[in-house]
Amino acid sequence: MSYICPLCNGLVVPEQACPHCLQGLSECGKLDDYTGPYSPYSLQTSSSMAEEDGNENGCIHMMYCHHCQTSTLWAVAQWDMSGNL
Length: 85
Ligand SMILES: [Zn+2]
Ligand SMILES: [Zn+2]
Known about the structure:
The protein is mainly beta. The protein has one domain (about 5-80). It has 1 helix and 5 strands. Strands 2-3-4 form a 3-stranded antiparallel sheet.
């Protein structure tokens, strides 16, 4: 099984709307980039392979709204690429 995050791999364009003002959100990278090894999500992944492309629960991305200056977390559902490779 091979799961990838479509957002990390540039396969999709983030088109999430801000829950507060409904403006388009900007993608600011993975949550892991902000929290590093102290992330509560990293505690769940013990294998080194899972850390490359997130974990099976989805890849958590930080989304930011420039309109109301609010950051939102977006759990991106990962794609199963095992049948396409
Ligand atoms: Zn991702
Ligand atoms: Zn907003």
